[in-house]
Design a protein that fits this description.
The chain has 3 domains: 49 residues, 434 Repressor (Amino-terminal Domain) (Orthogonal Bundle), CATH 1.10.260.40; 131 residues, Rossmann fold (3-Layer(aba) Sandwich), CATH 3.40.50; 131 residues, Response regulator (Rossmann fold, 3-Layer(aba) Sandwich). 44% of the residues lie in helices and 15% in strands. It has 12 helices and 12 strands. The protein has a 6-stranded parallel sheet, sandwiched between helices.
């Protein structure tokens, strides 16, 4: 009999096991002892058994597909998240669809609708910079699919969320500047809506308050997309304003790099005149001159956790439980380099 015509009952008969036991092994259930699991897996590998995915879907109502929607593709942090998700997807014999909103709420809606039509089991999404309405996110759950938010999240949506401890990390970054002797600390913040921007801004303020340094809103500059160009022009505004400053905490490494470029053009020494801390630990931050002190974000770990959370939610869903509103916080780390 060819492997294409093999059925679960054939495998069970050949191994002297029940059809249920074979099915549990092939579907990754944990309540099968290790020797039996090995026996089944060795046999199916030997005969090159390929399960009929369409029949499996009709039987289990599981498509074994999930979708990941990133706000940007050409981005080290999001690429590392993709790597982490893919690592666990492949281990679990799932298929992964990947899309990019390019920070567009309209593209985000279209991608969600597309993946729902493909009947994925779950959608993992970091919301776009433009997203202010969350009906598309709610439609995922209305279609009885699992939603996991990560990085840029919406707190009001009842679902699991996986984030970096942004507020705590921003406190650590600002505290480092304070401990270096800085007292007039600039913050180049992100946009007003993504939670990560809010949390990093609040962490900056928390540190000032903890060390009894008065907050001055004139020292905060908006860098909506956190890129190099915005950092450059925010630094230009600072210099043109004539304000005094001795430290800078930037929303991203790229923003910090843009600011450093402008400071250097204006003969401002780093870190002697101004100490600088970025956020993200992009590869470039260790190769610039000066190298940039930053917050490391473990993106691969975050990606792995996203898929683990999905499997946990899937199990809970089978048991008839409501979605958890758990927020899982991935620890970050301050990496001190030449810029501070």
């Amino acid at each position: 009999m060819s492997s294409q015509n093999l059925k679960l009952s054939d495998i069970a008969e050949a191994l002297g096991l029940s059809k249920t036991t074979v099915s549990k092994v092939l579907n990754g259930y944990s309540d099968v002892n290790a020797l039996t699991r090995k026996k089944v897996l060795d046999y199916v590998n030997k005969v090159d058994y390929k399960p009929n995915s369409q029949a499996s879907f009709l039987r289990t109502k599981e498509s074994k597909t999930v979708a990941l929607i990133l706000p940007q593709f050409n981005h080290e942090f999001f690429n590392s998240i993709f790597e982490g998700v893919l690592k666990n997807v492949q281990k679990s014999d799932y298929t992964l669809f990947v899309g990019c909103s390019n920070e567009s709420s309209e593209t985000e809606k279209e991608l969600i609708a597309h993946y729902l039509r493909l009947n994925v089991e779950a959608i993992f999404i970091s919301i776009s910079q433009e997203t202010t309405s969350f009906e598309a996110l709610k439609s995922i759950q209305e279609n009885e699919k699992i939603l996991v938010l990560f990085d840029k999240i919406e707190k009001t949506i009842l679902c699991p969320k996986v984030v970096i401890e942004d507020r705590k990390a921003a406190f650590s970054a600002t505290e480092h500047l304070i401990k270096q002797g800085c007292r007039q600390i600039l913050h180049f913040r992100g946009a007003y809506l993504p939670q990560i921007s809010v949390d990093r801004y609040l962490g900056y303020r928390d540190a000032l308050e903890a060390y009894q340094i008065p907050f001055d809103k004139s020292q905060v500059f908006l860098c909506e997309y956190g890129n190099e160009k915005e950092g450059y022009y925010a630094a230009k505004k600072v210099i043109e304003s004539g304000m005094k400053f001795d430290g800078l905490f930037a929303i991203t490494d790229l923003t910090a790099l843009g600011a450093i470029q402008y400071f250097k053009l204006n003969k401002i020494k780093i870190p002697e005149d101004v100490a600088v801390v970025g956020f993200g630990n992009w590869k470039l931050s260790s190769f610039t001159f000066p190298s940039i002190t930053t917050i490391n974000q473990p993106g691969v770990q975050m990606g792995e956790k996203i898929f683990e959370v999905f499997l946990k939610e899937k199990k809970a869903k089978k048991e008839g439980l409501n979605p958890e509103n758990e927020t899982i916080k991935i620890p970050s780390q301050l990496i001190v380099r030449e810029s501070s």
